[in-house]
Design goal:
single chain, alpha+beta, GIY-YIG endonuclease, 3 domains, four-stranded antiparallel sheet
Length: 259
């Protein structure tokens, strides 16, 4: 179900108040120009009118609103819709070239590793405002799980890494440690990044509305509101898990984890 409001409705503030939902700016041919979410669509439209992009405001003809039951449901639904339609005016979920990001990969000998960069083609795990902050995070993560600094691109040594000499690396850099043992610790470190069990169901109870998120292999696969809605993730990325973790930080006392 969706609601449609003409441009005059938006300008004259004829949208009902306090609608939680995902909204779409449409042109005269119903092409989607921009997708957003709000816990009060009427209030958000007023913000667009006063502070929005002039080009967008000049070409849109109407808005469509899909009502949601909770903010988290709207956040995750918006993320999927932006990926599905790729609206020309959307910038919110696009990668900023100024950010330094952490990525995950496997090398030619099947050791899993992290690397830092601005790889626009791959899905990042975490974003940082500076290379200094990114290196600090990766160095601490590498040390905590006794990973190899050379494999994680932190040590430029031609053979074994410096940490191996200090007996803080088990020798994956020179293939002494088995791939299985190394990757087992890597998986543990990977789960810590997302701060959730690898496979679990999170349920947020905000003002009596129970929004659930199913996570499999550190990825959000399903979400919805109990007894009211259910959605599958058709365009998987790490955006969804970042949204969930952000929500966990905001409502640290309002969720349960089932494994």
């Amino acid at each position: 179900m969706f609601l449609t409001f003409e441009k005059d409705d938006v300008i004259n503030k004829n949208i009902p108040p306090k609608i939680i939902g995902v909204y779409y700016f449409l042109d005269s041919s119903d092409n989607i120009l921009y997708i957003g979410k709000s816990i009060d669509v009427k209030k958000r439209m007023s913000q667009h009118l006063y502070k929005g992009r002039k080009r967008l405001l000049s070409v849109y003809c109407k808005i469509r609103v899909v009502p949601m039951h909770s903010e988290l449901e709207a956040l995750l639904f918006e993320s999927q819709e932006v990926k599905k339609y790729k609206p020309i005016f959307n910038r919110k979920l696009r990668k900023s070239k100024q950010l330094i990001s952490l990525y995950s990969c496997k090398n030619q000998t099947s050791y899993s590793y992290y690397y830092l960069g601005r790889d626009q083609q791959n899905d990042s795990l975490i974003d940082f405002m500076s290379m200094k902050a990114a290196k600090s995070f990766l160095t601490k993560l590498t040390s905590k799980y006794q990973l190899c600094e050379k494999i994680n691109k932190l040590d430029k040594s031609s053979r074994m890494c410096f940490q191996y000499h200090l007996k803080k690396c088990n020798g994956a850099c020179i293939k002494i440690e088995s791939v299985e043992d190394y990757n087992s610790r890597y998986e543990s470190s990977y789960s810590q990044i997302f701060n959730n069990p690898k496979d679990c169901c999170l349920t947020f109870n905000i003002e009596g509305v129970k929004t659930y998120v199913n996570i499999e292999n550190n990825k959000v696969v399903k979400f919805g509101v109990k007894g009211k809605s259910a959605y599958s993730i058709d365009f998987p990325s790490n955006d969804e898990i970042r949204i969930v973790n952000m929500y966990k930080n905001r409502f640290s006392k309002n969720f349960e984890i089932d494994t």
